[in-house]
Design goal:
Length: 295
């Protein structure tokens, strides 16, 4: 069997369609379909059941998928192990990261990583959605907040706190809310990706989720921060977005007793990438660069 045909087969199952696999691999849909068909012909079995909506592996297809995934991971680890004996890392590293976090805290340090590792090709996808690392073909992802239980490996990079804050001018004009009931009567600036926005806070030491309404909702934290600095209302944002505004006094913290418990920023990667040297070197580099955020 051709190793590349195994790679095409695994990518096709992970992506769910020939079209998605072709997009991931940078080839045509016809090429992917033809190579998978050739693999089926070589083995003399049907590996995929093809429907109009999605591909589904047969029982034998799942057996081959499990074996092929292990083979490909072992080959990649072997390549990296040999490369590690050389002077520099080589290969391509595909990373997914949240948009605002990356533009604020990664964009200015990536050139340094590239200078230190000139033979590593970085592919950075900025997206606030929680990507499927296996299906979308990422080596690692940077995620923020409480992680859901999964089979992924998570490395803590730095602590992170989400806070309530407003400008001194807004508080001087409208007053500072004394409790969560008063908070909901204020102009609130909503950072979220859906129309229903909840602020996860605490009351009497217990978690309490508040359904919030406001004149402004945006899926970009910098926009919400700037509106708060302009005196338009109260914001609920992580410190990695509002840290400089707090230091300068453009924003001041409020209702600290109601802030949620601190969370963290993580590097997340599939189990089969746990020993990959490029993943470990990159995650260690980012950890070193952003440790100041928890200070």
């Amino acid at each position: 069997m051709n190793v590349e045909d195994l790679r095409l087969f695994v990518t096709t199952l992970d992506a769910g369609s020939f079209t998605a696999a072709a997009d991931t691999l940078g080839v045509t849909k016809q090429y992917v379909s033809r190579r998978v068909a050739a693999l089926e012909a070589l083995l003399g079995v049907r590996l995929l059941n093809r429907t109009t909506r999605r591909l589904q592996a047969t029982e034998l297809g799942l057996l081959l998928y499990d074996k092929a995934t292990t083979i490909l991971a072992d080959l990649r680890d072997a390549q990296e192990l040999v490369s590690a004996q050389g002077a520099s890392l080589r290969g391509t590293l595909r990373v997914s990261a949240p948009m605002t976090f990356a533009t604020l805290h990664l964009s200015h340090v990536l050139p340094l990583f590239m200078q230190q590792h000139p033979h590593i090709n970085l592919e950075i996808d900025l997206n606030d959605r929680a990507v499927d690392l296996l299906a979308d073909g990422y080596d690692m992802s940077i995620r923020i907040g409480t992680l859901e239980d999964s089979s992924l490996i998570a490395k803590r990079l730095t602590d992170m706190q989400t806070i309530l804050c407003a400008s001194p001018a807004y508080l001087a004009e409208h007053g500072t809310p004394a409790d969560l009931g008063e908070l909901q009567q204020h102009a609130c600036l909503l950072y979220g990706h859906s129309r229903h926005v909840e602020w996860r806070l605490r009351e009497a030491g217990k978690p309490r989720n508040l359904s919030m309404r406001g004149q402004l909702r945006a899926n970009n934290g910098e926009l919400i921060r700037d509106a708060a600095v302009a005196g338009m209302g109260i914001a609920y944002l992580p410190t990695f977005i509002v840290g400089q505004a707090l230091e300068s006094g453009a924003l001041v913290p409020i209702l600290e007793q109601h802030w949620p418990a601190s969370a963290a920023v993580y590097a997340v990667y599939p189990q089969h990438r746990q020993s990959a040297r490029a993943v470990q070197v990159f995650s260690d580099f980012i950890k070193q660069q952003i440790e100041h955020l928890s200070a």
